[in-house]
Fold this protein.
Amino acid sequence: MTTELIFVGTELLLGDIVNTNGAYLAKKCAALGLSLYYQSVVGDNEERLGEMIKTAAKRSDIVILCGGLGPTEDDLTKETAAKVMGKELVENKHSRKRISAYLENYVKGHADRKITENNWKQAMIPEGAIVIDNDNGTAPGVIMEEDSSTLILLPGPPNELIPMFEDKIFPYLRGRLPEIICSEVIKICGIGESQAEDQIRDLIQAQSNPTIATYAKTGEVHIRVTAKASSEKEARKLMRPLVRELKVRFGASIYTTDEEKTLETAVVELLHNQNLTLTTVESCTGGALSARIINVPGASEVLKQGFVTYSNRAKKKYIMVKKSTLKEHGAVSEKCAKEMAKGGCFITNSDAALSVTGLAGPDGGTEATPVGTVFIGCCLKGKTTVKEFHFNGSRNKVRDQAVTYALILLRECILENYENR
């Protein structure tokens, strides 16, 4: 079943707002097994939007439109879609009642807020359409079913669109499909995409149902296994041997098979399960490593402290890096990274410490130590490991890679410590 996405809003077209809905919906369409061939962005212009809807409806079975369902004059999606499909707009009493309750709660206790007449525009629905309640805002979603194509209209704000899609649209679309599509993701860290693909080349060449696809991320490779069958149980049965084989081939490099779990979440869980505490000592990453760790709920149980020792003086004063080390080897060196990690453990009495020191650029590199050189250290239970990396790309990309590989190194050291017990 072919699907097309149209995102409506001049603010998207001009880049004032990042279109995160595009990535989210594309991922969800893939999970459903829908064939997604086109994504488009159009401004708040009735004529251009109308032409885009006409084109999409001719070539796709399902067209999903996002945005333009609000109360203002430039919110034109519903009106334009109804016009293209030859439908009149009629007030939906159920939607008006829900909008009224939402707005009354919104203005309660706020003298400066008031309910304006244009809000009732959102209760106007194309005749014969299916109304999708919005539990997080005022604009209801709309499904317009026609013989040749179905239009699905969703509100633009992600905090409204995502729950509406998860709770109502995803089940609706799944019910439209002749087959059940199931997938499972294998998340691997520390291995490049080319290496990962080489290790499963025979599986890729032999694939039919289930299928395999690899996706490269910073320091990670995600392998998605997808199967089609008449039922979810049968689809998962088809996937099981292939998933088992991938686990055998990649072993400890797999950090999760949970779709929602991130590398930092897996590392925090590993620290927690092993009853380990952590300190971070950062130079070129400037706190990005600790920030990524504390994004994980429950990180406070394992993260003791984070140091940003950007200057040599800070390295000496707070984490006991020797003056002679900085003079003879420099701040961007294996020895400095080692002393940073050891000092972090000692000062905070942590079980583990991660250190990052390097040249993120764009200036400051030499022939011996070019921009992109990063040393990452991990001190765990008295044993210190340091790895040297040479990253490519912009300053931000170098820092991002450094953070990811610091997490990977910590994970490797924990697993090694666990195995050696």
